[in-house]
Amino acid sequence: MTNEISQCRFCDSYGSGKFCNCCGQSFVVKRLTLKGIIHEATHFFTHLDSGFPYTLKRLVVAPGKMQRSYIDGDRSKYQKPFSMFFLCATFAALALYWINSSVVKYFNAGEAQEAAFFHQYWVIMQVCMLPLHALLAFLFFRSARFNYAEAMVLQLYQFSFLFLLLTAIHLLKFIFPHIETRYIELPLIIAYCILTNLNFFKEGSKSIIILKTIFNIGLSFFFSSFVQDLLVKIF
User: Fold this and answer.
1) Comparing C-alpha atoms, which of 32, 67, 35, 36 is closest to residue 147?
2) Are the beta carbons of 153 and 71 closer than 8 angstroms?
């Protein structure tokens, strides 16, 4: 009995079995589900993938296209979404703690409580708020027919890059110790997310995508800022 011949949707080669002999992609691409995303979150703690540099590069040069490619099934060369998220969030938390502690120590600017918050609670806050960010994206773009798990993947990769962007912006405090970075962060975040969503939701109206993105990111950003400021005061 011969194996069924299948055509790879990524390189158009023909072959048998589960995986393409030319590019290594699976012949059968399963749709992302919430159960699968939770499994990947568990998988993160036992195994790290080697595609971090490539994934980061694609998030810089092709935001939105990278996430769409992953959701469509081209997954083997990318860092897994939860793994990417935790790596970037952890790096950002440590860097932001160091930056803000240094500003307090050497420039007598900023707040020690804020620096301590980045060290102890920032990653936890981002993880806890992730389902909300994904839900907002899912609701704003529900007409695009992506499910909640796929919206979460979009947010996981998007926030991974934004964590690194925020870290770079906070480095400005070494030049301008009293700068209020959120007024720089918001325009850059909106610009990046607009570009991401235009590439990801490529079948929709560009003007509608831009408006939805502005409302979505604005709501998420201000809610995150409110929660962060509240937690800094509490802890």
Assistant:
1) 32
2) yes
Q: How many CB atoms lie within 10 A of CB 20?
A: 20
Quick one: 1 and 80 in the same domain?
no
pLDDT in tens, 71-85: 998 888 899 999 899
Cα separation of 21 and 12, whole Å? 11
CA distance 9 to 14: 10
Q: Report yes or no: 48 and 78 within 8 Å, Cβ to Cβ.
A: no
pTM as predicted: 0.77
- Angle between helix 148-170 and helix 81-107 axes, rounded to 10 deg: 20
**Same-domain pairing of 159 and 63:** yes
200 within 8 A of 67, measured Cβ to Cβ: yes
Q: How many structural domains does the chain have?
A: 2
35 and 64, same domain (yes or no): yes
